[in-house]
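Aim 2 progress update. The chain analyzed this quarter is reproduced below.
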Amino acid sequence: MDQFRKWLGSLRFNPIGSWRIILLCILTATTFWFFNALNKTYTTSISQPIEFEFDAEGLIVVDKLPENVQVNLTGGGWNLFRKSVGINTKTIKIPLENPVEVRRMVASGLLSILSDELSDFQINYLVSDTLRINIQELRKQKFNLEIDTLGIDLAENYRVVSPVRILPDTVWIEGPKEILDGIEDPIKLKIDRTRINRNFDRNVEITLSVDRPKVFKKDPELVNVNFQVDEFIKETLRVPATPVGFPDDWNLSANDTLITIKYEVGKGRRDEIGVPDFNFALRFSDINRSDSTVTPVGVSYPDFIRLIPPKPVKIGKR
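Predicted structure tokens:
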């Protein structure tokens, strides 16, 4: 009886050993199915590496050249599997005889090249039917530099009171000829500071308003820009005006020709101005007969002020 029980115990289910057997069976069946499946013919799309060959001397690649082309193939499972996982995948060389003149390659032009290299497959079609190419002649040109003075953002009542200097005032730019030809000379530089209220002396980057600015080389990249500013204030002054062309019988006195002028001047130069610096005229030919007024004309005055147009003054015959 004891021996019979031992025999029954030996037939009991062993979880660990049974799972190992089951997994081994599944692995064996899967392997068999996989190898059997690879013996069949399939159709799929793959990414085929390509490389363009051309003489690059004196040329520049403006847009990154395509490095892969999607090809729909029919072939044996083993060959397609090797292609898919990159085993023995060869980069196909595509020659460009005149790279500057070629801007695109269509499927028909690629099929013959690909067919020779993919002779183990039947090429059905190219998923990427057109490859864009942008290779241009490399050119270097010298440009003048200029500040966009209208774009200088000054604080309220401040003005530029000196020449705007750029050091150096030229730049060499190297890049694709077709885009380079469209750059205007001089190149306008922009000041990125706002509400400027003190003298400016900074390095400014030369920026190009063109497509694909990163393909260009600039020498130098930065230039020094400097100029002086001052706050302008309004001033009023009484100055004599010279009568011109008046008949002798008008008998104009000094008080008759004393006029009031208004102007704006930088704080730093306000003390440089006096009455002798202004020369105004009252022209008899300019008299408005309806109200006996005449507008003073500025003959000379300091060039560093902004003269506010004077108002007409009333003048009459004595």
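The chain is about 20% helix and 40% strand. The first helix runs from residue 2 to 10. These observations will guide the mutagenesis experiments scheduled for the next reporting period.
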